[in-house]
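Example 266.
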Amino acid sequence: MTRHCEKQSGEAIEAGALDRLAPLATGAGRFAQAGRSAPIDSFAHVDTWVFDLDNTLYPASCDLWPKIDHRITLYMIRMFGLDGVSCRALQKHYYHRYGTTLRGLMTEHGTDADAFLSFVHDVDRSSLPPAPALASAIAALPGRKLILTNGSRRHALETARRLGVDHLFEDIFDIIAADFVAKPHEEAYLRFFDRHAVEPARAALFEDLARNLVFPHARGMTTVLVTPAPGGEDRRESWEIAHGREPHVDFSTSDLAAFLRGLSAR
Ligand SMILES: [Mg+2]
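Predicted structure in complex with magnesium ion:
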């Protein structure tokens, strides 16, 4: 049976949508740090809005990323002729060690990137619902918007098109543009900054993986961790999930559309 993603909220800002340095697992404790400015002021200097794609522009509860994840396993089964359990373990080993499975396969086995990306992103996106609330919230942000993804441009375009947000972005910086150096490697961000003339101190980054915010935060970006909705299914791996306050996370939200809507109300 086809699983449908949770819809991006179009309702009024909910508790937890604007949590600054709140306990990430609960979404409680709004503006937990006394003396910190409200989010609407903290983004006043931002003129470049940068978004991760997978599990950020669409919810982590969606089945899209798991489909891609399984296609990666299938690709490796066909490539190595091994059983699924062995390939799954190898896949996660490469992902952990190199940032992406592709990088591991390219480095250790000379895998053709185009063939790999075409295969793994050949997934059914019909369970991904349009996100009009997110689209209008992104459209209302002052400045340019970019997608920064460890996936391919084609995957980002097709997914953004499905969400109804593709027309809002100036460009997509993908794993090919990064010369297959993936986030969270510093080089990936430096190439992105250079390619798109991004001044980190005037840019904000939205990401579902806290580790991908470390270097951007150190370079002056305002960082927002996008978390699964409270009680929602989280398909990320346990080591990928932040379980507490982290200094490189300026804000966290489980409702990206509501968070953005709050910022453009300035
Ligand atoms: Mg992501």
